[in-house]
Structures are given as C-alpha cells and as structure tokens.
Recover the amino acids of this structure.
C-alpha cells in the first residue's frame, strides 16, 4: 500500500514548520508536512492503512472522512486523487483550551485543499455537509457515538448508491478465553448484541458509548441501508467494507 508522501512543494522553513506543529497541544497522527518534518502522533497509521484497504485510485471521487482527527487518512485520499471533506466534532478533547485537531495546521503546511468542518455526524445538515459521496471513511468513531443507528442513517443519506463505506471499530467477541495471560476471542453468537457504557466504564473515556459483537455490527448495517463484508480483525478492532444499497 502507498503511504502518505510529503508534499511535492514546501514553502517556509524547517524551523517554521516545527514551531507551527508545536502550537498544536496533542497530535494523534504522524503526517509528513515537508522539510523532513513529521507531526509527532502516536497512532501507527501506516500499518492501519494496510488493514483499512482504502482504494488506491480515487480520481474524480468525493470522499467524506468522519471523525478525521488530524486527518492522516484524509490526506491519503487527497493524494490518491479524491476530493475530500473531513469532519470532526473535536469531542475527543472534551472541551477546554486544548480543544482542537491538528488538521488545520497540517493542511496549511501541506498546501492541501481538504474541506474541514467541525461537525457532528449525527447532524450533517447543520454543517451543510451534502452528498453524494463515493467513499466514506468511518474509522474508530462508531463506539464514540451516542446514537449509532442515527449516524449510519445520516451517512446513508449522503452516500451515492453503491458508495463504499470503510469502517473500523472497537468491538467485543462473544467468548473470551485466557491462555497463559493472553486473551483469545471468538465470534460465535448469531444474535446481535451491544454493550452500553453510560459513564467511563470503557477505558475511562466518557466519550465511549457502545460496543457491538460481530453480529450486532452486521445487524446495524443491514438495518441502515448498507450491505457489508468483513475485511479483518486486529486485536479488539473489527474492519469491514460496506456498500450503500439502493434506497
Ligand atoms: C478514536 S478517534 C479516531 C480518529 C481517526 N479517525 C483515526 O482513526 O485515527 C475518534 C474521533 O472521532 C471524533 N468524534 C467523536 N464523536 C463524533 C461525532 N459525533 N461526530 C464527529 N466526530 C466525532 C473524535 O473527536 C475523534 O477525533
């Protein structure tokens, strides 16, 4: 898979770039911004890119990156020819002075034309996020949502018929067995199930609300207008590609 390249042309200086990056309090993604500078994120986005299997060629396609954070996957889609709208409600920062993603800074330094909006996926109309989109990235966001059914319906509304949804989420296996301190999980139940975390039960993070089993995720997609195929599993994350079925 092609990872994200530095921008072809870079204005400014290395010191100027480092100063701009230091103004952003928290970086999640490692984004090359030119002059040999890479943003100091912690997520292994290159390995993740392999697991997500985002199409390599996006010429002429409109892309929506939901919960984009610093925008690594948005920049990848732009590099692959897509016209990208990226949204995030910036809830991961839980308010306060440090409430901001690094996307604006990275976009500026890369000379990107990504359209970034602070928006809630439950309410795309308020932010004037209008389809139709050909590709929707929904990466590690589902379990943060108060209303997954509403969100998937909203995305179906702005998806072109046949559009591709690339989804990764935290989920729970039906059976867990510990062998020599290692947890082995198995997806065995045909019945949909969702765990609810009204407080900080999941990872101490109050923005975590729901986790499905594999059947629960499949049922959610079927109920909201998507046909899917699972593409992989890595630790406690499940990956799938879904297509918008005709309304
Ligand atoms: C775990 S991060 C994932 C970021 C990125 N997609 C990735 O995989 O690296 C979840 C992101 O979704 C955003 N988010 C959470 N709830 C949201 C909502 N209702 N609407 C839009 N974005 C949301 C958070 O602010 C955060 O940036």
């Amino acid at each position: 898979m092609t990872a994200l390249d530095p921008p072809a042309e870079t204005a400014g200086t290395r010191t100027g770039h480092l100063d701009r990056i230091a103004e952003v309090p928290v970086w999640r993604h490692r984004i090359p911004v030119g002059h040999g500078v890479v943003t100091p994120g912690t997520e292994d986005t290159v390995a993740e890119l392999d697991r997500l299997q985002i199409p390599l060629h996006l010429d002429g396609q409109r892309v929506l990156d939901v919960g984009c954070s610093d925008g690594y996957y948005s920049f990848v889609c732009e590099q692959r020819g897509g016209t990208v709208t990226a949204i995030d409600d910036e809830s991961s920062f839980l308010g306060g002075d440090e409430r901001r993603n690094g996307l604006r800074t990275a976009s500026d330094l890369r000379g990107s034309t990504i359209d970034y909006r602070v928006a809630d996926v439950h309410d795309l109309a308020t932010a004037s996020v209008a389809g139709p989109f050909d590709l929707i990235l929904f990466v590690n966001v589902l379990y943060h949502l108060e209303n997954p059914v509403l969100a998937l319906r909203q995305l179906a509304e702005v998806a072109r018929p046949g559009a591709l949804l690339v989804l990764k989420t935290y989920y729970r296996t039906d059976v867990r067995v510990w062998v020599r301190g290692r947890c082995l999980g198995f997806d065995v139940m045909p019945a949909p199930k969702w765990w609810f975390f009204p407080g900080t039960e999941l990872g101490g993070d109050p923005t975590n609300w729901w986790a499905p089993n594999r059947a629960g995720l499949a049922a959610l997609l079927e109920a909201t207008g998507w046909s899917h195929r699972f593409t992989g599993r890595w630790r406690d994350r499940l990956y799938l590609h879904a297509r918008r079925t005709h309304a």
In short: The CA atoms of residues 30 and 39 lie 5 Å apart. The longest helix spans residues 148-158. The helical segments are 14-22, 45-52, 72-79, 103-110, 148-158, 214-223.
